[in-house]
Amino acid sequence: MVVIASIFLGSLIALTSATPTPRSGMLVRSSRSDAPAGFVHKGAAPPDKSIPLRIALVQNNMAGLEKALYDVSTPGNLNYGKHLSKEQVEAYVKPAKASVDAVNAFLESNDIHATTLSPTGDWLGFSASVSKANEMFDADFSVYTHSATGQELIRTLSYSIPSSLQEHLDIVHPTTTFTAGNGSLPLDFVRLKKNGTATPPGVQFGSVPSSCSSTITPACLQALYGLPTALATQSSNEIAVAGFLNQFAQQADLTDFLIALRPDLDPNTAFTLDTIDGGSNPQDPNDAGPEANLDTQYTVGVAQGVPVTFISAGPDNTDGFAGFLDMINHLLSMDNPPQVLSTSYSFNEPDLDQGAASNLCNAYMQLGARGVSIFFASGDGGVAGAQSTSCTSFVPTFPSTCPYVTSVGSTQGVPETSASFSGGGFSNFFPLPPYQSSAVASYLNSIGSTNAGNFNANGRGFPDIAAQGMNVEIFVGGVAGIVAGTSCSTPIFASTVALINDQLIAAGKSPLGFINPLIYANPSAFNDITSGNNPGCNTSGFPATSGWDPVTGLGSPNFGALSTAAGL
Fold first, then answer.
1. 536-546 confidence digits (pLDDT tens)
2. 190-565 has which CATH code?
3. Maximum Cα–Cα distance for the chain, whole Å?
4. Where in the chain is the domain with CATH 3.40.50.200?
5. What SS3 state is found at 486?
6. Is 380 annotated as a binding residue?
7. What is the DSSP letter of 206?
8. Is the pLDDT of residue 197 over 70?
9. 267: closest CA among 277, 258, 275?
10. pLDDT tens digit sequence for 294-353
11. Contact, 147 vs 70, CB < 8 A?
12. 549 is an annotated ligand-binding site residue
């Protein structure tokens, strides 16, 4: 999995227990004891330096939206499948006029005029000098250097807001969130001696070719999971693939992939390009990105016939999430967003401000309520997030810990076992959601005191499901090779859901949307993975067991059983 630089470079840190004393009339909104591991304090930021900031206003009725999301996503509910319109969702989110007026009055009193950044006006953006920001928010903005990449960030360890705004202003961002977005830990691309190791498509479910033990291809996935090979028929059914960090998807490589591994498909099948934040997608072979190629090849090449859009996020973002927030606001602004979003990037949860993470998580809830299935890779460091041995507590990854997305872990081999790198664990930000309470309770009871003290037993567990993630064949720069990671598993499972959506839409039914209540109610729709573990932090991590576990979730998909559970 390609990761944003600071995502997997920190160990869990505790928020400070000694709350800073704000000046009169101010209320501490967020503070932390120190910068995350991997960041070095370099000194005070220049007072006249202009920095971009964003304000999230208190949203109207997120509890009501959450109830509406569960209603439309839970089988048996009278509203199941009746996804909300853009306008209905926005009515839950739009801040009260009193909040808009109060926050704008505060900004204007400081000679600042904000720009609205989201469809409902819950996010405002502006720039201010460091000295002005320090004054407005009782902060101490300083320069921090990310050791691995050399990127400099201007952040503060604490900030406050006027107490008169506590019911109106949710967070100021990025303040105590530390994310460095100009570097990556790339997929390890291993060149193959020959191209096209797949048997011809159409292998019967269960008849897994012997080659799949060493190299995973679309034909292997069809045999393992019972995926259909016929072209999807519904043009309204779409998949969006998120691209970050100058990972560019190559049409020429997709063509080579289809010729070698899906010879039954038109080799000229293309994806559509969409861009945000100055994004681009150059087609020189030297620009080929293993992550972007993987994500497009295993959506176009597995969900055959489903239109795929590659959304390339460029460097012109100031959202403090390396473009994640801009990406979701871009999708929320659409009248008809794609029914599936696949993202193979994430952050270490402790690197983020909890309020900021909650706001981004709420944006995923908005999309889910509108009928979008959102998938995130669970990470490639087992329980350590960063593939680190220095952590003393397990490191969950975000957005996988957001309860409104579906987190995807990895399996390997034939028969399948868990992949040792498969990220998993429990959130320190988000509580256990109702749809997985029984499954998680059973797991925790089964492991007893294992790893006690290393994780939050009351947190949202992840991943939710899994798919093959080891020795997956792709093409990069005209060359065939294999890669590994939960970023392989994510587009594979996203494609599985897109194929089910195609059949649902053809039958006059709604697409799946937020799938977690459905899948936890139907664990038999998955191939249960009961062996392996995900080590990290100088431990063996969690063991995979019968039922849900924080290594492979509920297991890998059985397309026929999952389709039946979906009402087909």
1. 999 999 999 99
2. 3.40.50.200
3. 72
4. 190-565
5. helix
6. no
7. T
8. no
9. 258
10. 999 999 999 999 999 999 999 898 888 989 999 999 999 999 999 999 999 989 999 999
11. no
12. yes
